[in-house]
Structure formats: structure tokens, C-alpha cells
Design a protein that fits this description.
It is found in: Membrane. Keywords: Membrane, Transmembrane, Transmembrane helix, Transport. This protein has 230 residues and is mainly α. It has twelve helices and no strands. The longest helix is centred in the C-terminal third of the chain and has 34 residues. The protein is globular and about 55 Å long.
Length: 230
């Protein structure tokens, strides 16, 4: 009796089929092109960079600003915990409006920048503990949401598979800009003796950021309207 041996193919448990180097390079190249050719990638990144830099400047000088208005230290240290509560509300509660479909992320981020910009601009005119606390609290929730909405907003334009790469790029640029903070803060503190001018500049820049999003939202709605009519 002739014994016939059956050849069986063993399953590849520990082996992962690697794509060819040519196809891998082409996929990577096409992915890079597709992300860097999206105009909203640049706009969203720059917009977030400007806001992130501005809100970090505010966090760095807000205590000195409050103390310079004659507010006692005991009252000054209570501002941050109160603002943190509203910051948490902005990070957790406000995004639910987009999940429920009440509004879009682009509209909310425009409102965030507008409210924060107005708050930063009027902060120099707050001269006591009550007005300072009310001003900081008024935009605390919106600044918290603006920081949180960046990731889903970026993913909306570049795709979830490339959002990590986009965030790395934005983070690198943000880290580089932080080297300028000591010079900016030192100029207004040592040469001008007040942060009031800096707050007005930050307010105008943030309001301009909101205006830019207003233009973008208008263009998007116009394009959607044209798509529906055609």
C-alpha cells in the first residue's frame, strides 16, 4: 500500500504579510499629499495654534494681573478653582450639543473664540474681585471647549487615520512658539509696567480668529447650498 502524504498549509499565526516597499511608499506618499493638500488642515492648525498660545499667555499672567488690581491674595487664589469648574463644563457638557445635532463644531468654535476674545479684551477694565471673577468665569467654559474640540475638528477634515500626525505637527509648532512667551511677558511687565495692552491685543487676535471662522462657515454653507441646488 502506497502511503500518500497530504500537504497541508500551516496557518500563519506569528507571520504578518508585509506589503511591498513600493506600495507602502505609494500609500504613504498619497496619504501625505491628501492631508497637506487640504486647506482646512492649515486653517484649523493655525487657528488652534493662535488660540492655544493666547490662552497659555493668559494662564501665565492672570494671577499677576489680578494682584496688580489690588485684589488680596486670599481672594486671588479662589479664581482658578472656580474657573476650573466652568472649564470642566465646557469640556464635557458643551460637546453634547454637537453630538445631539443641535449645532456644528465649526459654529461652536467660532462662538468659543468670540466669547473668549471679548472676555480677554474687557479684563483690563475689571478693577475689583467681583468683576475679575465674573469676567474670567464668563469665558471659562468656552475656553475649555475650544481646547477639547480641536481633535474632533481636525479629524473631521484630515480623517481619523491621520489626525495623530496632524496633532504632532501642531504640537511641535506650539512648543516652538512657547520660547517667545518670556520675551512677550517681560516686555509688557518690565517696560510697560502693565499687562493691559497685552490683554487688549490677545482679545483682538482671538476675536479676529472668530471672524475668520465666521467667513469659513459662510463659505461652507454657500457651497452646501449650491450643491443642493445643483
Amino acid at each position: 500500500i502506497n502511503n500518500t502524504m497530504c500537504t497541508t498549509t500551516s496557518p500563519k499565526v506569528f507571520t504578518i504579510d508585509q506589503p511591498s516597499s513600493r506600495s507602502a511608499r505609494s500609500n504613504l506618499r498619497s496619504g501625505e499629499k491628501s492631508m497637506f493638500k487640504i486647506p482646512m488642515f492649515y486653517f484649523t492648525a493655525i487657528s488652534h495654534l493662535v488660540f492655544f498660545y493666547t490662552i497659555n499667555l493668559h494662564s501665565s499672567i492672570v494671577v499677576d494681573t489680578i494682584l496688580s488690581k489690588g485684589v488680596p491674595v486670599v481672594q486671588t487664589i479662589t479664581v482658578a478653582p472656580v474657573v476650573t469648574i466652568f472649564d470642566w463644563i465646557g469640556r464635557v457638557i458643551i460637546p453634547l450639543s454637537t453630538e445631539k445635532g443641535y449645532t456644528s463644531r465649526t459654529t461652536l468654535v467660532m462662538i468659543d473664540y468670540l466669547v473668549v476674545g471679548v472676555g480677554l479684551f474687557v479684563l483690563p477694565y475689571a478693577n475689583n474681585y467681583g468683576t475679575v471673577l465674573a469676567t474670567c468665569v464668563s469665558f471659562g467654559a468656552f475656553s475649555g471647549h475650544a481646547m477639547t474640540v480641536h481633535n474632533p475638528l481636525m479629524a473631521q477634515y484630515v480623517g481619523f487615520n491621520r489626525v495623530n500626525v496632524a496633532n504632532v505637527i501642531v504640537t511641535c509648532f506650539a512648543a516652538a512658539t512657547f520660547f517667545t512667551k518670556p520675551f512677550v511677558i517681560g516686555y509688557f511687565r518690565d517696560h510697560l509696567g502693565s499687562y493691559d495692552g497685552l490683554y487688549r491685543i490677545m482679545g483682538i487676535v482671538t476675536i479676529s480668529n472668530a471672524a475668520a471662522w465666521l467667513v469659513v462657515n459662510s463659505i461652507m454653507r454657500h457651497r452646501k447650498a449650491r450643491t443642493w441646488t445643483t
